[in-house]
Design brief:
single chain, UDP-N-acetylmuramoyl-L-alanine:D-glutamate ligase, 8 helices
Length: 194
């Protein structure tokens, strides 16, 4: 089986243990990360939020940091071809076997917790938990983490050691969840600043 299908199978397996759709809130992801031993607290991070340019900003920052001889991680979404693209360690994708190991840890944690089994995390929350586990295991010097949607209630807003928050351009997007004015959307994004 080629790597594309291995990643696709892992992605399908993760989706089985996630609730469909978008359900803003940090309760599920916070519980999951606590049960996993708080991997989100084990690495320093740069948190990138905004409407446009998050991916290119993250890639540029990761490249600069890696070329400064720091061991880096970069977590972005969505992927173009397969899920392995979402997380890079030192500029390289992890193997499907590494992803499978991280996925199994997260899936087992969900299955063994009554609250998470009854109110499962969203797909993005599950994916973020797997990424944080794999980043923690990689013992990076710094991670560049791109927010999914918004900021305040985004699963990436659980990061415990944010050194810098970068806000790219902000415009009208995801108005069903973030608000109907530019000011309301900006406030959702600015809420990640610590």
């Amino acid at each position: 089986m080629n790597n594309y299908y291995k990643y696709e199978n892992i992605e399908k397996e993760l989706a089985l243990y996630a609730s469909p759709g978008v359900h803003p809130g940090l309760e599920r992801i916070s519980r999951l990360l606590a049960l996993l031993g708080h991997p989100e607290n084990s690495f320093p991070a740069i948190h990138v939020v905004g409407t446009n340019g998050k991916g290119s900003t993250s890639a540029y920052m990761e490249s600069v940091l890696r070329h400064a001889e720091l061991k880096t991680a970069m977590y972005t979404s969505p992927h173009l071809i397969h899920m392995g693209e979402r997380l890079l360690i030192n500029g390289s994708m992890l193997t499907s076997e590494e992803w499978q190991r991280g996925a199994e840890k997260v899936i087992n944690t969900i299955c063994n917790d009554k609250a998470l089994s009854q109110d499962p995390p969203t797909y993005f929350e599950v994916f973020t938990a797997v990424a944080f586990v794999l980043i923690a295991e990689a013992h990076v010097d710094i991670a560049v983490i791109e927010a999914g949607m918004g900021g305040r209630l985004d699963a990436t807003n659980t990061l415990g050691n944010v050194l810098l928050t970068v806000i790219t351009s902000i415009s009208m997007d995801h108005m069903d969840f973030l608000g109907t004015t530019l000011e309301a959307i900006a406030m959702e994004k600015f809420a990640v600043i610590r």
